[in-house]
Design goal:
- By secondary structure, this protein is mainly α.
- The protein has two domains: 14-89, no CATH class; 92-151, Arc Repressor Mutant, subunit A, CATH 1.10.10.
- It is built from eight helices and two strands, in the order ββαααααααα.
- The protein has helices at residues 22-32, 37-47, 53-60, 68-89, 92-100, 106-117, 122-129, 133-151; strands at 14-15, 19-20.
- A two-stranded antiparallel ribbon has the order 1-2.
- The longest helix is centred in the middle third of the chain and has 22 residues, at 68-89.
- The chain is globular and about 45 Å long.
- The N and C termini lie far apart (36 Å).
């Protein structure tokens, strides 16, 4: 549910119990374009289409979930995933990778996308990208160093 513009001096909030400010929702939907398709669709359903999270959770609960406990667990996982995605998209690291990834070498960009934008662990990224764990770790540390440098106002 999208709210109105925040009062002057108010901080940005993403509290789904009260709604999300329109500018915040639009920015997050824009950032969602960099997520994997299932994650992007989840974020867009709530923030772009204006569906309530319980409604989206109900739609996404797998038909294979049999029994009250399995259904409850599946719904809880979807809610948790949505909130994790919002938290990750709101990080400065996520924003900087989105803005700067096209300037980086291909391998470093692939690692940044996998680890920062898609939220994979270094081990998962190494497996999916066909790189060694050492290579993924080295590229990820470089990306984090670039982010730290940007936060301190250093060269980008």
């Amino acid at each position: 549910m999208v709210g109105t513009k925040p009062p002057e001096g108010a901080t940005e909030r993403v509290d789904l119990r009260r709604g999300v400010h329109r500018e915040t929702a639009e920015r997050l939907v824009g950032m969602a374009a960099h997520l994997a398709a299932p994650d992007r669709l989840l974020v867009e359903a709530v923030l772009k289409e204006g569906r309530r999270l319980p409604e989206v959770v109900e739609m996404l609960t797998p038909a294979t979930a049999v029994g009250a406990e399995a259904v409850h667990r599946a719904r809880r996982q979807i809610r948790r995933r949505f909130h994790q995605l919002l938290a990750r998209m709101r990080t400065e690291e996520f924003r900087l990778v989105v803005e700067q990834k096209d300037r980086w070498p291909a391998a470093q960009r692939r690692v940044a996308v996998a680890c920062v934008l898609q939220g994979l662990t270094q081990r998962e990224a190494a497996s999916r990208l066909g790189l060694s764990l050492h290579t993924v770790r080295r590229h990820h540390q470089t990306v984090l160093a670039i982010c730290r440098s940007a936060w301190r106002g250093g060269p980008r």
